[in-house]
Amino acid sequence: MMPSHRTSNTTALILLSAVLGSTLRAQQAPLLENAPHLNSEVSFTFERPGLPIPKFTLGVKEDGTGTYTAQDASPQSPQQIHREFTLTAATTKKIFALTRAVHLSAELCASKAKNIADTGKKTLTYAVPGIVDFCTYNYSENKNVQSLTEIFQCIAETMDMGRRLDFLHRFDRLGLNDAISSLDHEVSVGQAVEIGTIASSLRSIASDAALMQRVRTRANALLALIPAEDPPR
Questions:
Q1: Cβ atoms 47, 120 nearer than 8 A
Q2: pTM of the complete model
Q3: How many whole angstroms separate alpha carbon 146 and alpha carbon 148?
């Protein structure tokens, strides 16, 4: 018996609906991966009582601009810290690519292993208009989360070293030699990154004729590491 036109039309409609549904889901599902044009932001918060900086947050927008806020718990001068900065295009692109590849969630972020040493509470957050994904962890076995953690902690280390240089430049100029030597070493081994975030501190040191020449030379050498295509703002 030949199928009726009504049966054929119904089958066609079912197939068309399935195709359109699959297409719509494919367009909607990876929203976080396909949203570089949106006003998105990645932030990293670190908390560990007992440290000189027991808590800090780094937030980075898609254009590379960001803010660093922290609590300085030092007995000499406890204070709230707020700094604005601009990251290089390469680091900004890497941060957002890694974040979009993770699909942040507690299930994918935090390690389920027992007896892991406490290295501090960490929270990664990815926000676009109407959507916020985040995860909190002490340690993660996810390689992308590990990479993001390292990037943000190294940026924070640079920012902290910049504040230390500013303090010593103002109050203890003799201590600048050891401090800038330490920064130079941390940069060489990758423990401090994005030197452009403290370019103003380094320029102030490099231009101060009252300082030791070797201190000014190191400051100029560090400034030379800032990519020319990403001048600090």
A1: yes
A2: 0.80
A3: 6
DSSP per residue, 130-169: TEEEEEEES----HHHHHHHHHHHHHHHHHHHHHHHHHHH
Q: Give the CA angle between residues 165, 123, 73 to the nearest 5°.
A: 40
Radius of gyration for the chain, computed over Cα atoms and rounded to the nearest angstrom: 24
pLDDT per residue as tens digits for the range 109-160: 878 787 889 999 999 999 988 888 899 999 999 999 999 999 999 999 999 9
Number of Cβ within 10 Å of residue 216's Cβ equals: 19
Structure tokens at 201: 């501190």
* Measured distance CA(14)–CA(116) in Å, rounded: 53
How far, in whole angstroms, is CA 163 from its chain's centroid?
19
- The residue behind tokens 């030791």 is 212
Q: DSSP secondary-structure letter at 224? A: T
Residue with tokens 């709230």: 80
213 φ, ψ to 5°?
Answer: -60, -40
Q: How far apart are CA 198 and CA 202, in angstroms?
A: 7
User: Out of 3.90.1720, 3.30.1560, 2.60.40, 1.10.3470, which CATH number does the structure's domain 41-223 have?
Assistant: 3.30.1560
| Whether residue 209 has pLDDT greater than 70 | yes
Rounded distance between C-alpha atoms, residue 184 and residue 181, angstroms = 5
Asked if residues 122 and 44 have their Cβ atoms less than 8 Å apart, the reply is yes
For residues 84 and 61, the answer to whether their CB atoms sit within 8 Å is no
